Amino acid sequence: MNTHTCLMPRPLPRPARAAMAAFLATAAMALAAGSATAQDITAAEKLLFQTSHLQNVAAPKVLRYRYVRQDAEGAGFSDEVLIDVAAKNGDGSARVSSEFLHGERQLPIPAVQEAQGNPALLGFLERDIAEMKRLTGGSTSYFRKRIRMALAEHARVEDVTVDYDGRQVRGRKVVIQPYLDDPMAGKMPKFLGKQYVFILSDAVPGSVYRLSATVPGAAPAGKDGAGAALIEETMTFSGTKS
Fold it and tell me: In the chain, fewer beta carbons within 10 Å around the N or the C end?
């Protein structure tokens, strides 16, 4: 059912992978629970966690995404994410199962019988949070909190156009930098400028067009801005199959 190419595998530790299924059961609620009332939900939170991403998918259909990690230390890989929308329910939700990466990197995502959001989005965030824990020793709850706060307080949302199926389509882009003012900055200085970009479009089946998480490098001597990325992970919609 899948084809993927490993350039240099860098698996998550087995304890982190084993814990993922439990994390995913509550992660969407934890990430979205940043507002006290419905009126307080920001445009970014609504777009990512309060939108029926799968309403434009005619089941049965498999959504395919190309997942690429580039790492300045050479530990990169290319793989695939598959979201199997098996059937639609009467209320517009869907019965969905997922294959998020493969082999030692695979993230176990439980099947969902009444999915509204796209599991690929949550899987991307949960993998990233597990990587932050692995690389810094911090807690998953802390990294979820920083992402949630950034979406609720500092997210930049803008209209964009993207290339899909040979044409330009409208989309929305959300940009956050959760660690710029992090009180734990002294423990993870390399990640202060880390940036997340979420691009969604109703014209794309499943609504998720591209997600990315980038850790910028230091600027070259005498120049402003960031240098080449130390770590960049992207997940890009690559088509569907029946």
Answer: C
Burial label for 213, CB within 10 Å (0-12, 13-18, 19+), is buried
Residues 56 and 26: their CA atoms lie apart, in Å, by 25
Cα separation, 184 vs 132, whole angstroms: 13
In this structure, the number of other CB atoms found within 10 A of the CB of residue 39 comes to: 6
**pLDDT tier at 220 (50, 70, 90 boundaries)?**
low
Beta-ladder partners of 100: 81, 107
Residues in the chain: 242
- Alpha-carbon Rg for the chain, nearest whole angstrom, is 18
Helix (H) or strand (E) holding 161: strand 156-164
Helices 119-136, 140-153: axis angle to 10 degrees equals 120
Exposed / middle / buried, residue 219 (Cβ in 10 Å: 0-12, 13-18, 19+): exposed
Identity of the amino acid at 116: Q
Give the dihedral of Cα atoms 231, 120, 25, 44; nearest 10 deg.
80
Strands of the sheet with 227-241, listed across from one edge: 112-115, 94-100, 77-88, 61-71, 227-241, 208-217, 195-200, 167-176, 156-164
pTM assigned to the model = 0.84
